[in-house]
Amino acid sequence: MTFTVIPAIDLRGGRVVRLKQGDYAQETRYDSTPAELAARYLQAGAQWLHMVDLDGARSGDLENLTAIEAIAASGLRIQAGGGVRGEADVRRLFDAGVARVVVGSVAMREPDLVGQWISAFGAEHLTIALDTRWHEGRWALPSAGWTSMEAGQLDDLAPWYETHGARHLLCTDIDRDGMLSGFNLELYRHLHALAPTLTIQASGGVRSIADIVAARDAGAEAVILGRALLEGRFTLEEALAC
What we know:
This protein has 242 residues and is of the alpha/beta class. Helix content is 36%, strand content 29%. The protein contains 11 helices and 13 strands. The strands form 2 sheets. The protein has an 8-stranded parallel barrel with strand order 1-4-5-6-7-11-12-13, surrounded by 6 helices. A 3-stranded antiparallel beta sheet has the order 8-9-10. Strand 8 (133-135) and strand 9 (138-143) form a beta hairpin.
């Protein structure tokens, strides 16, 4: 299988930030501008960049589209989301140069609609984001920047999207996000067994090269790297060597 290492840039107010466990009150800001960081990742050999509009994820508007558009012109292939609520948002991101649009809240709330988008735009151009948290004995699905809890659950939606033509599934264990505690390998083994034809992107908690290798061995075909890169736990060159 092809294994892809994808550095991430989270945007809030046009700046590079990281949140702990999706908590907007636990924000760390970084000095590099989004453009500077993207240029550094491109120089290190990255082919893909994952961008999250944190303002948009909470508000439902594409609030950092200008920054995303500027970086999309740099030569990196951009996977971006946050604030996608309708087809017009998907088209705006494509028009901005995004190669793959990440659909999260609406994928949980309106799977039939997103199924239509998969048919219209092609499975290769959409990433279904089912970020999850273990809650009351199930993998629950918080949405709207992880501020609301949806009625559905991961174990139902992941197979549904597999049978409705999706290809890319991004799944973050929210409780590990930004915590440098390692990937939840059991979650990715579970997902791989649940929906074996989906290309799983692991996200949340990576702290070392060993974590990246372990995620690959657990069935993930891509990893999203955020805080660990920003804080120099390892270099992107080392990660790409996996």
